[in-house]
Write a structure and sequence with these properties.
Helices cover 2% and strands 44% of the residues. The chain is mostly beta strands. The protein has 5 domains: 165 residues, Jelly Rolls; 80 residues, Immunoglobulin-like (Sandwich); 144 residues, Jelly Rolls; 77 residues, Immunoglobulin-like, CATH 2.60.40; 52 residues, no CATH class.
């Protein structure tokens, strides 16, 4: 604030504190005091909560008003407190107004103090919501400490600006005297505070005060914020003040443009105390696969966490088992099996308890993974820069990297480093004929507009990026992007080449993964007599395992393994019994999950015998089954020894019947 003594009260002197704007109260803040001003219209404020500062004399700021205890100047209307500044002769002054305070009635040490207020407007009009130390009568101001939650000085060019400030002693004076320990908040879009209600608040804790307007924190003061020689008086109780001043050194005096009366409208005043609670669940959990490891990160807690617990499950949705704990917001889960899926949640902890689980994040480990941090050192699963030729290592950027919207982003350090200029990375020792997943990590940390950097990228001579502009892809500086491709090595090698078009090409980081193969698609079946034929779509470079069950949900057991083709026939079946099948694909020993199931039922053959008379003999044929004969249709039936179709039976005088036994 501009004047070190602007809020000196009548002896003993008081100090002004403003309470900053509309912020949703967070978990842990519990309401301990409030005034909703729910009284009859025209009545005075609740005397059990509020008193009055009465008098005039400038209050050390050359103010022009006389503060009264009249309802003309402070009253309840429509569930709101109205503090009205009037142009009238009273007490030797030309203006009247009101200053309300909870001194001697209510005071607090630490808490969240907030009020919903609509301020007036006009040259020389000075509304304030603030606090003073209860020890002001014994130690005086500024030693008592003052917290200005909200002030506005009414000037035409400051209608959209409020101030939040702390005052205290510095070598016997106010350390806020010309420069101030405070900040201000300007409404966006040129809006004026007098046009609507706003919530002004401070959150006052041990050695910290934070100011808010409408949920927006805009300034924080701590003992480290004080100038040399300043002391921190904010560990003693303080009381609340609301007033509407007229004129003074800081705002200046009313002029011909100022309209009276002016009204400060207060919808409510509320005080909360902080009750420690378990922290909120972490957000932004990311799980990135490595070689036998998963690298996890999440947003650091803003709700009082002192540690985190990492939990893992083999299936989505749990049951989760705790696999580690840490005090930081990163964790490496090591010793994992390749070709497996893992599912993670993270909880935040403190002395009070543990949060609920975070949202789940999954990682799929393949058979192979390598990651290189271009131009930088080791970071998570990324090894220091290697396998390159050409280009120049840049100095690391220090700005925070936005990885929002990305799946399994690299650590921020990967996007903060780079190798720039024409350069080539060569990865050898791969398997020819197998598809690898290539992820290129990039962030524009130097240029600020599109068109200032563009480049091409080739993988084994195939162009995968053309005139690529990182800013055009991300829309913002220091925002990460991941460009992903599938590539098949040539002679066991992948060559990734960056070629400048404008300025310098760049690489932030490269990941090459042999991902766990996808399960085969298109599994279908057809049935015959005591057989079921299966076929499915091919997966590049894979062998196949066929599994069978007697129920749609399994369990499935292998019946064929290591198949090179995409079809097979199962003859270990029984006619009339339905079988269910799934197929998995394996690439370099890494097996996919199972395909969707398909079923079939072997067909019972038609029970028929064909009989022909040939040269005095009967020739019998049948599709399947065992031939039986009898001399009477009622039986006794017996198998015809050794009979196989076609079977020749001599004609005799005796009547003979034939049938088939199918089982």
């Amino acid at each position: 604030m501009n004047s070190p003594w602007r809020k000196n009260l009548l002896p003993p002197c008081l100090c002004l504190l403003l309470l900053a704007g509309p912020l949703a109260v967070q978990a842990g803040w519990q309401l301990v005091w409030n005034d909703e001003f729910a009284q009859a219209d025209g009545t005075a404020p609740d005397a059990s909560k509020w008193g009055y500062e009465v008098g005039g004399g400038g209050f050390g700021n050359n103010e022009l008003e006389y503060y009264t205890a009249r309802t003309n100047n402070a009253r309840i209307v429509g569930g709101q407190l109205v503090i009205e500044a009037r142009s009238e002769s009273y007490g030797g002054r030309n203006y009247t107004s009101a200053r309300l305070l909870t001194k001697g009635k209510w005071s607090w040490t630490f808490g969240r103090m907030e009020a919903r207020i609509k301020i007036p407007r006009g040259q020389g009009i000075w509304p304030a919501f603030w606090m003073l130390g209860t020890n002001i009568d014994s130690v005086s101001w500024p030693a008592c400490g003052e917290i200005d939650i909200m002030e506005n000085i009414g000037k035409t060019n400051e209608l959209g600006k409020v101030y939040g400030t702390a005052h205290g002693p510095q070598s016997g004076a106010d350390y806020n005297g010309g420069s101030g320990v405070g900040g201000n908040y300007v409404l966006p879009g040129g809006a004026a505070y007098a046009d609507d209600f706003h919530v002004f608040a401070v959150e006052w804790t041990t050695n910290q005060i934070m100011w808010y307007v409408d949920n927006h924190p805009y300034f924080t003061a701590t003992p480290d914020s004080l100038p040399a020689g300043g002391t921190w008086p904010f560990s003693q109780p303080q009381f609340i003040l609301l007033n509407l001043a007229v004129g003074g050194n800081w705002p200046g005096n009313p002029d011909g443009t100022t309209v009276f009366p002016q009204q400060l409208l207060v919808d409510y005043v509320r005080v909360y105390r902080y009750v420690p609670t378990a922290p909120a669940a972490p957000g932004g959990v990311s799980a990135s696969p490595g070689s036998g490891q998963v690298y996890l990160s999440w947003d650091a807690s803003t709700s009082g966490a002192t540690g985190y617990r990492i939990k893992r499950a083999p299936v989505s949705g749990g049951t989760y088992t705790v696999v580690g704990s840490t005090a930081t917001n990163t964790f490496t889960d090591a010793g994992l099996a390749d070709c497996s899926n893992y599912y993670y949640v993270v909880t935040a902890t403190n002395l009070i308890g543990e949060s609920t689980n975070s949202s789940e994040s999954a990682a799929t480990l393949g058979a192979f993974s390598i990651a290189v941090n271009s131009g930088g050192g080791a970071a998570g699963q990324f090894v220091p820069d290697a396998f390159f030729s050409g280009g120049t290592q840049a100095s690391p950027a220090t700005a925070a990297i936005d990885t929002s919207g990305l799946v399994a982003p690299a650590p921020a350090a990967v996007y903060q480093t780079e190798r720039y200029g024409n350069c080539t990375y060569t990865f050898a020792g791969l398997v020819t004929g197998v598809k690898y997943h290539v992820r290129l990590h990039l962030s524009e940390n130097y240029w600020t507009a599109t068109g200032q950097r563009s480049f091409n990228v080739f993988i084994n001579a195939a162009q995968v990026l053309t005139n690529f502009d990182i800013l055009a892809a991300t829309g913002a500086q220091n925002k990460a992007t991941i460009q992903e491709f599938t590539a098949i090595p040539t002679n066991g090698t992948l060559v990734i080449r960056y070629v400048t078009v404008t300025d310098n090409a760049k690489s932030g980081g490269i990941e090459i993964q042999l991902a766990r193969p996808m399960p085969p698609a298109g599994l279908s079946t057809s049935s015959g007599n005591r057989l079921i034929a299966l076929k499915w779509n091919a997966v590049t470079g894979a062998s196949y395992t066929v599994k069978k069950a007697t129920a749609a949900t399994g369990p499935f057991f292998p019946v064929f393994a290591g198949l090179a083709g995409t079809n097979c026939t199962d003859t270990t079946v029984t006619n009339g019994v339905t079988c269910f099948y799934v197929v998995s694909a394996s690439v370099l020993g890494c097996e996919s999950t199972n395909s969707l199931a398909a079923s079939a039922t072997p067909i019972n053959p038609l029970a028929s015998v064909s009989v022909q008379a040939v040269s005095g003999n009967l020739v019998l044929t049948w599709p399947a089954g065992t031939l039986q004969s009898a001399t009477n249709i009622a039986g006794i039936w017996s198998d015809v020894d050794g009979a196989k179709p076609p079977h020749t039976n001599p004609m005799g005088l005796q009547q003979e019947f034939f049938r088939l036994r199918l089982q």
